[in-house]
Amino acid sequence: FMPPLNEGSILYMPTAPPGMSEGEAVKVLQSMDARLKTFPEVTSVFGKAGRASTPTDPAPLSMAEIVVLLKPRDQWRPGLTWDGLVKEMDAKMQYPGMPNAWWMPIQTRTEMLATGIRSQLGIKVFGDSVEEIQKTAVAIENAVSKVPGTRSAYAERAAGGFFADFEIDRPEAARHGLLVKDINDVIMSAIGGRNISETVEGRERYPINVRYAREFRDDPDTLKNVLISTQSGPIPLSQVAHLKFKTGPSMLRSEGGKLVGFVFVDIADRPIAEYVADAKKAVHSEVSIPSGQRLEWAGQFKYFERAKEKLTLVVPITLALVFFLLYLNTKSLTETIIVMLAVPFSLVGAIWLLYLLGYNMSVAVWVGIIALAGLDAETGVVMLLYLTLAHKRRERSGKLRSFQDLEDSIVEGAAQRIRPKLMTVLTTMIGLVPVLWSTGTGADVMKRIAAPM
Question: What confidence tens digit (pLDDT) does each residue in 114-127 have?
Fold first, then answer.
């Protein structure tokens, strides 16, 4: 619902299935960087896989974020737009099993902080079971992928994690004089690591963590042979614990005390409200939502719904205030209605221009339409003033005796108001035409404000 804001860069976010190794993630990331750098509009490319060194970025290793810095628009290929460039990049960046998402870096960060969604549209699936949530989310992914305008759709696979589970043999541990705590301490120290102290460097404190080197803990057989000290001497871990590998959720999301799964949807060439209407129909007809689960449409659609509710209240109040102020000025209900009736006709040209420019309805467009309505009311008042003055002049001079005299007075008043109306309209147009031709940062928003006027 917000107009695109050209930040001079693109954030490319492919998502891999869970379980990707660190080495494979680096290999794929380097391949993606190299492909993106081949576009002549690209200055530089840099990306990351997984989380950064901050608690506010809990990204899994399967989530990559690649920032593509672009050259100035005057150095692009002739006729190429931002949407066209993204379309070319998306066609070239097709990796099996990795859906793409394209957006602006700053806008993406804002959306992720506000809603947790890293695409234009997100569908939240609330429920009580991670497996059931994932099952419903995958079904929704398949349904919305068929909706026209879907560039990509991806449901989070939260239930794809692998875990090493040690089941302690309590009778055997008791035979060796070991407590469960003793065995857990060895497992934690050997595999997960344990903080034994901390180092002080000025005002900074760093924990000292001790655990086995990687070559002693990266293989199941090696883990089974981890030694545990007993009264009769060291014994391997396999004598008192059984190692099993299990699958489970790699991460848990929750909102409002309920588990939740996300379906990310990247949209192209369609208004978000129109797309969501079709997507809801597809989900309703193809997906069966189990009892205890519910859906919530998030992302920019949530802002659209919120803005729609506010505009439903603000627009009538604004029109009522304009009507009241006009009535105070004219002291005539008839003249006020005449001025207000002219406002909708001025919007016809604005709608046609928006259609020809390919602009969707957005907050910026609504700002321009409201400003246009105010400008039209102003010119309507000027026109009504000159018509009234011409009518009164003829009436005082006794030249208003027939219908022809009334028609002549209307023509006279309309002719006299041409100059002030041209001054008002041309001043606005001359000031806004450069905005329509601008290409700098923020021009996409300003164009949508200026176009209706």
Answer: 777 878 888 999 99
Taking CB atoms within 8 Å and a gap of at least 24, the contacts of 314-318 are 315/370, 318/370
140: Cβ–Cβ under 8 A, 6 or more apart, which residues? Answer: 123, 125, 155, 263, 283, 287, 295
- Cβ-based burial of 192 (10 A; exposed 0-12, middle 13-18, buried ≥19): exposed
Q: Can you read off the two tokens belonging to residue 160?
A: 């794809």
Residue for token pair 């797309």: 275
SS3 236: strand
Secondary structure string (H, E, C) spanning 58-119: CCCCCEEEEEEEECCHHHCCCCCCHHHHHHHHHHHCCECCECCCEECHHHHHHHHHHHCCCC
Burial 225-240, CB ≥16 within 10 A → b, else e: ebebebeeeeeebebb
CA–CA dist 305, 62 (Å, integer): 32
> What's this model's pTM, rounded to 2 decimal places?
0.68
What are the helix (H) ranges across 240-362? 272-286, 300-330, 333-357
Fold annotation for 161-248: 3.30.2090
CA–CA distance, 354 with 28 (Å, rounded to integer): 41
With contact defined as beta carbons under 8 Å apart, do 101 and 118 qualify? Answer: yes
Task: Break the chain into its structural domains and give their ranges.
Answer: 1-107, 161-248, 332-450
The residue type found at 82 is W
Which fold is adopted by the domain 1-107?
A: Alpha-Beta Plaits (3.30.70)
Distances in Å between the alpha carbon of 198 and those of 193, 194, 202, 277, 392? 14, 11, 13, 57, 93
pLDDT of residue 299: 80
Question: What are the residue ranges of helices labelled H in 104-216?
Answer: 105-115, 130-144, 170-175, 180-187
The predicted-structure confidence for 337-352, as pLDDT tens digits, reads as follows: 888 888 888 788 888 8
Any idea what the Cα angle at residue 378 is, between residues 372 and 384, rounded to 5°?
A: 135
The helix/strand/coil state of 162 is: strand
Q: Is 94 left (phi over 0), alpha (psi -120 to 50) or beta?
A: beta
**Which residues make Cβ contacts (< 8 Å) with residue 131, sequence separation at least 6?**
159
C-beta separation of 93 from 12 below 8 A? yes
Joined together, the tokens standing for residue 50 give 């997984």
Cβ-Cβ contacts under 8 Å for 419 (sequence gap 6 or more): none
pLDDT at 396 (0 to 100): 76
